[in-house]
Specification:
- This protein is mostly helical.
- It has helices at residues 2-11, 15-34, 48-59, 67-78, 84-94.
Length: 107
């Protein structure tokens, strides 16, 4: 037990970290110890299949004119209730799509 504590002090790591490293090594060898695991992360508000429908909707010639209308469309057509911000961030930042805004004629 003393050696693990000394090792934790030398490596400036918590004792529990040293314990986890040694357990991983015992269970799976060096491969297990060196495997980088990725956290699952947060599940997306809009699933990939719905995202594809949204992309097709954005590609329609008449297009949508507001994020609010897209928000309503998502709720009616796909049964997904998401905030305005979620719709805006997905369309504007992730999909790099810009909504069609008809220009008003100059008078």
């Amino acid at each position: 037990m003393k050696r693990r504590e000394e090792l934790a002090t030398m490596l400036k790591r918590d004792f529990s970290t040293i314990y986890r490293w040694l357990r991983a090594y015992k269970q799976g060898g060096i491969t297990s110890l060196l495997t980088v695991k990725k956290a699952p992360g947060k599940t997306p508000h809009i699933l990939p299949e719905v995202r594809e429908k949204l992309i097709k909707k954005l590609q329609e010639p008449e297009g949508e004119t507001s994020y609010g209308k897209l928000q309503i469309w998502l709720e009616k057509e796909c049964g997904i209730k998401v905030s305005y911000k979620v719709v805006h961030d997905l369309v504007h930042y992730k999909l790099k799509s810009y909504l069609f805004r008809p220009k008003t004629p100059k008078q």
